[in-house]
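Lab meeting minutes (informal)
Scribe: AK
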Amino acid sequence: MLTSDLLTADEAAKLLRIGRRTFDAHVARGDIAYIAVGMGLKRTRKRFDPADLAQFREQQRRVECPPELSPKQARGHVSGSKSVDFAAILRERREERKADREKRVNKFGAK
């Protein structure tokens, strides 16, 4: 019989090492081809050819390349950025508060 080498959806998902829901989503999007088996009109019984699964696997193959950096970025410079000295900002704020306290004390006398 010709359908003996065809796989069920569960077998195909297990072969691809993906979940059944993910597998069904790929089938619904048309990423994975199937063969309709039987005469059912309401619900098609789907079987999957291992060659189609191998083709899908090849289509999914990806290679990630790091983005190419300009010479300026490679040295650690990022355009439009500046460093912030938070300690200096804190010192300035403390000095301002201290000056405000001294003004109040001089204006109203010692507390």
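Next up, CB showed the second protein from the same session:
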Amino acid sequence: MNTIDDFIAILRDELGLPVTSDDAARRLDEVPGWDSVHLVWLLTVLEQRTGRSISLPDVLEAPSIGGIYDVVAVAA
């Protein structure tokens, strides 16, 4: 996962969420179909793909899809 577009593809392909790059600034509570189970699933997928631990507290503080990407990009 090298770009925000790669991250969006994970949300779309792995979690089945209807998002595009235009949704990067969108808050999670604005993403259709989003729930807390998606967050756990997303962290699992991201840790598998990056081979690194990702800080759950940092992800929980992220204000948007792009914010989560920023947290993951720092961890990678």
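CB comment: Residues 14 and 45 are 8 Å apart (CA to CA).
No objections, moving on.
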